[in-house]
Amino acid sequence: MPTTALGQPNAVSILFFFLFIAITLGITYWAARRTKTTEHFYAAGRSITGFQNGLALAGDYMSAASFLGIAGLVALSGFDGLLYSIGFLVGWPVVMFLIAEPLRNLGKYTFADVVAYRLRQVPVRSAAAISTLTVVALYLIAQMVGAGNLIKLLFGLPYEAAVVLVGVVMILYVLFGGMVATTWVQIVKAVLLLGGALLLALLVLARFGLNPIALFHEAALKYGDQVLAPGKLVANPIDTVSLGLALMLGTAGLPHILMRFYTVPDAKAARTSVTWATLFIGFFYLLTFVIGFGAMVLVGPDPIKAIDKGGNMAAPLLAEALGGTPFLGFIAAVAFATILAVVAGLTLSGAAALSHDLWVNVIRGGHAPEAEQLRVARMATLVLGALAILLGIAFKGQNVAFTVGLAFAIAASGNLPAIVYSVFWRGFTTAGAVAAILVGTLSAVVLIYLSPTIQVDILKHAAPIFPLKNPGIVSIPLGFLAGWLVSLATREREAEEKYLEVERRLHLGGGD
Amino acid sequence: MQEKELETLVAERWRMALTLTGVMLAIYLGFVLLVAYAKELMGRQIVPGLSLGILLGALVIVSAWVLNWIYTRWANTYYDERVRRLLGR
Fold it and tell me: I want to staple A345 with a disulfide (CB 3.0 to 4.6 A). Which of A50, A160, A256, B28 is the partner?
């Protein structure tokens, strides 16, 4: 074991940790007094500027997996880890060109608003709620298990206590402060994460004459040229392409990301948000090149693996090597903030699916008094928060890394086809929408179950039934195909007639 | 308001959006295919320390920024102006 202050509570990390909690709860208190209507609760009163929303999107999107996971992957396997950095970014232009503005102009709180706009509400919203809640639950599992493990490693707190702590703080943000608090927590987190990563990268580069190429060269000298080339992680080419597709197209179908576009006043601000978000997130992922290789060279793969086999402690260990215990404490607190901001966004989008889609539009037929809507939204938040804590505890010790990939695959296979068709295709029907969402979601789930990830790694069977680890290359076309064929088979006159209205609203804006 | 003009504008907008989406998809899939099928080429170092894979990977991120910039510029100047005229404001 290398000597490290990791795993012991140290004064600096506890100080930063409480400072972050105090500031964000202060924000929540301020936000709670402005959260009087559902429009505030779900959409921050549509008063967030494009720049602020760009930061909040970055805070919503960059999870601990992005920061600690990618840094660890690069530190242990070099170039292969960068594939995630790049894959997680290239979905953003797709969000920009096809999704952000139509969503803002057509919807209110959830992506189902857009799909159900000219279709029958009950079937479409029910299907969308199923896929949303599946994505949210899978994503929450990854975040909560990650949170438990991380906080245990970083602060020495017991796993269960860490999961409950994250769950309770997150519930406080969302329950009382709704989208206003969630947005500002995400903004604070994005600034901390970008600042922390930049500082870490600069401290690394300072040792190499501020030249990243010199750093990569040193890595190749120490660990062989293969660390700069594609390696083991991309052994199966079709699997690599499949993963790439799911990462790219999944971003454009993640419910907690899509929901953020309702927080800005108009389509132009939605556009500005994506511009900023892509700049911030891309910049961050470029920094992961330096942080990952920096950890490889300055800490070394073996000490990193000695602390955590998956490499998740690469960035904190690098921080300790460069800036001692205080910097380790700061980076640990940043990692904690990162998780909190993501789970808050996830819970809010799940609560919107439960209350706005299922309760208001399915059970109450679209007519529920404002006070009731707000009450149900808050109850849904409590339910999802409790679920997050239970999932975190239930999956303790399990390898849940695949759940984020699965969430992206479902978002790309179920949600994206439905959104794209409803915006572009006059002939899209209710049955087609339900088919696209359910076939996309189910095929991604079933294929993951049959894949080596579950069959071989978890169930210990000799051979998988489906050969690929990533279902995207099959399930994404299946989702699109199902939506197309079923729509062709079921004409819906009313939906076609309403398409002109959709087009007009989509392009010219209007409504709220 | 004229339906015809709206239809032209819609067609123009989707041509722009789909072209840019296609370009992003092509750049990224091109990169992924090279990583999957041309490992040796991607591992080749242009100068010591900078492999082709790392360089192209960074360029993929930069290309996303550039495509966004092209779209935003087009939308902020040309498209928004057309919408404003259609609405008669």
Answer: A256
Q: Which domains does chain A have, with CATH numbers?
A: 11-508 (1.20.1730.10)
Where are the domains positioned within chain B? 3-86
- Residue A238 with chain B: CB contacts under 8 Å: 36
B50 three-class SS: strand
Q: Which residues of B touch A213 (CB under 8 A)?
A: 47-50
- Residue A372, Cβ density class (10 Å: 0-12 exposed, 13-18 middle, ≥19 buried): middle
SS3 assignment, position B88: coil
3-class secondary-structure state, position B47: strand
> One-letter amino acid identity for B64?
A
Structure tokens at A462: 């000799």
The closest CB to that of B28, out of A229, A248, A289, belongs to A248
User: Residues A226-272: pLDDT tens digits?
Assistant: 999 998 777 788 888 898 899 999 999 999 999 999 999 999 999 99
Give the distance from residue B34's alpha carbon to the nearest chain A alpha carbon, in angstroms. 9
Hey, which bits of B1-89 come out as E strands? 45-47, 50-51
**Which ipTM score applies to this complex?**
0.94
User: Which residue from A minimizes the CA distance to B76?
Assistant: A268
Per-residue pLDDT tens digits for A457-480: 888 888 888 888 889 999 999 999
* Two structure tokens written together for A270: 């939605």
Residue holding tokens 């079923």?
Answer: A486
What distance, in Å, lies between the first and last C-alpha atoms of chain A? 59
Cβ–Cβ contacts within 10 Å for residue A148, how many?
26
Cβ neighbours of A52 (radius 10 Å): 21
Crossing angle of the two packed helices A267-298 and B52-74, in degrees rounded to 10: 170
Confidence of residue B89 (pLDDT cuts 50, 70, 90): low
Which residue type, as a one-letter code, is found at position B35? V
Give the separation between CA A292 and CA A44, rounded to whole angstroms: 36
Give the residue carrying structure tokens 């979601």. A441
CB neighbours of A180 closer than 8 A, spacing ≥ 6? A31, A34, A35, A40, A44, A45
CA angle A232, A237, A239 (to 5 degrees): 90
